[in-house]
Amino acid sequence: MNVTIIDPLQGDFPEVIEEYLQHGNMKCIAFNRRGTLLAAGCSDGSCVIWDFETRGIAKELRDKDCVAPITSVCWSKYGHHLLASATDRSLTLWDVKSGEKIARVTLQQTTLLVRLHPGSCTPSICLACPLSSAPILVDLNTSSSTVLPVSVSDSGIGVLPHPRNKFADGSPPYTPTAATFNKNGDLIYVGNSKGEILIVDFKTIRVHAMIPILGGSIVRNIVFSRNGQYLLTNSNDRVIRIYENLLTQKKAAVALEEMSSSFDNLQGTEKLKAVGSKCLILQREFQDAVTKIQWKAPCFSGDGDWVVGASATKGEHKIYIWDRSGYLAKILEGPKEALIDLAWHPVRPLVVSVSITGLVYIWAKDYTENWSAFAPDFKELEENEEYVEREDEFDLVPETDKVKDYEVNEDEEVDVVNFDKDPAFSDSDASMEELCFLTAIPSPDAPEQQDKYVGSSTKVEESTHSGSPLSVDVEQNDQAIILPDLILAEGGNSAAEETVGNNSSKRRRKPSAKGLELQADQVRKPLKKGKSSNKSFKSKNKKNDQDTNGFAPEDDVTDECL
To answer: Is 306 exposed, middle or buried, given 0-12, 13-18 or 19+ CB atoms closer than 10 A?
Structure first.
């Protein structure tokens, strides 16, 4: 899209369904870091990688040991690996470029959400959120796991869940629901059923801070923005909350440790809450005050300026888009199919949603192009404005131009070699090669039809070079290729199969009844032309024989010649 002809007054959020992707029954999706590849987990245990530029399938990852539906997919930082969790309690790590399985780990419970460690170039540690137990850190190389603390005792020490999902003091069952890494992966943010956010050190597995959520409802989702400045939580009280992250992006764990040591005069949960107040601050709340609907798959836009959430109501495919200040900008209404997953493109104003039928819908902006030819300094107004004339507006040399001439430094050197980094990818390591695209391998659409045509063309060449009168006469009427091919398609299957057997080892499918009927209809039409040409050829032969021998040839001789 040409940026110069786009109306700048339009918002950078999607508005309409541009197209949809279909391959099996897809359940979950995830973009790579650049947004060039889209991974989708299917109900048959396979993972499909789409080239998002061409909207074609770039690779399909299939494990013969896994036929259960995929629940979550996650890319590594540089796009070389893909991690998938399935309902058979397995975690599978794939090499995207080669399509080979690197590791497979089986847990005790089904994993609903899985995340690879964002700070590792060769990922081996992942964060898994099981169905009915505490989040765990899993080492994919050694298959070892570490359970994260899900609660804090009065003394301020993190408490692991009871083996029967009960606290040690006999309180009701407790189920944490969400966890995520921060941008660099040195801290883990855990949401629990008490309506609390725990900040856990990745290395020591120690709780350093606690942030209570208003209402004390179960935390269903917890998501960071791409730049790491904002945190989103979705609770059972049907409210989406946005927090501002006050910690530094780099070495956040060290800064948190120093902050915790400054509150040594406090003890237990009071100290954790005091530290938590310096880590996160509530900025905005989003909810539907009228319908009080439950939200599903909330997330940020690529630049963090927009917040998107889907309706969890059955049979509805509605997507709500707010700006970060709390203004509801757009409600997208899709087909009458329930929405199960949602993702915003990392760079472009695009939203991809997954319906319960397995289709992936791509929501894009409905651009309004402006082809008006105005001067470069012309400003198009939406409404009338009062214009104030400048004093030097009609001077031969305005004062503003004189000032501009003095500000230009012609001796300054212009750097044309170096370039500024994109702030969205400022943490990229120049030494690491990022995988953005996959090599496409073309495959024939219908190999059985091509094999049939190969056999037919071989037979045609033999008939055209045989020197028979029929081939000569038919060639004059432009039927040298059509007639033998159609006759062979109807009755010469054995010869075609012999030819195909020499050229290809693929098995041919038996033609359907509809295909045989269409072939028979096509044969009848050319045969009528062939009969008329045969009659002319027959009469011509009779005339020649009468002139030479003085008598008409027998019918069986003519038929044998034909």
So the answer is: buried
pLDDT of residue 421: 66
Give pLDDT, residue 1. Answer: 43
- Cβ(456)–Cβ(464) under 8 Å? no
pTM of the model: 0.71
209: left (phi > 0), else alpha (psi -120 to 50), else beta? beta
Residues paired with 244 in a beta bridge: 230, 281
Provide the mean pLDDT of the chain.
Answer: 78
Which CA distances in Å does 120 have to 185, 269, 423, 431? 9, 32, 20, 14
In the prediction, which pLDDT does 249 show? Answer: 87
205 burial level (CB within 10 Å; 0-12, 13-18, 19+): middle
Of 301, 312, 299, 362, the closest CA to residue 340 belongs to 312
Q: Is the distance from CB of 71 to CB of 86 less than 8 angstroms? A: yes
Q: Provide mean pLDDT across the span 455-471.
A: 38
Predicted confidence band at 516 (pLDDT cuts at 50, 70, 90)? low
**Whole-number Å distance between alpha carbons of 131 and 74:** 18
Task: Determine the Cα–Cα distance for residues 168 and 159; give it in Å rounded to an integer.
Answer: 9
More confident residue, 133 or 37: 37
Q: Could you give the CA distance from residue 150 to residue 136 in angstroms, rounded to a whole number?
A: 10
Beta bridge partners of 70: 86
What 135-141 contacts at long range (C-beta under 8 Å, 24+ apart), as own/partner pairs, is 135/176, 135/178, 135/179, 135/188, 135/190, 136/107, 137/205, 138/91, 138/105, 138/107, 140/83, 140/91, 140/93, 140/102, 140/103, 140/105, 141/103
Question: Exposed, middle or buried, 382 (CB in 10 Å: 0-12/13-18/19+)?
Answer: exposed
Higher pLDDT: 546 or 103? It is 103
Residue 529 has pLDDT above 60, yes or no: no
Question: How many CA atoms are closer than 13 Å to the CA of 505, on its beta-carbon side?
Answer: 0
CA angle 267, 151, 281 (to 5 degrees): 70
AA letter at 524 = R
Res 549: pLDDT: 46
Backbone angles phi, psi at 275, to 5 degrees: -70, -40
* 3-class state of residue 269 by DSSP: helix
DSSP symbols for 163-205 = TTS--TT-PSP----EEEE-SSSSEEEEE-TTSEEEEEETTT-
User: Which position has the token pair 């074609």?
Assistant: 56
**Cβ(89)–Cβ(108) below 8 Å:** yes
Note the pLDDT tens digit of each residue in 212-263: 999 889 999 999 999 999 999 999 999 999 999 999 988 999 999 999 999 9
Two tokens at 13? Answer: 């959020």
Distance between CA 15 and CA 332 in Å, rounded? Answer: 7
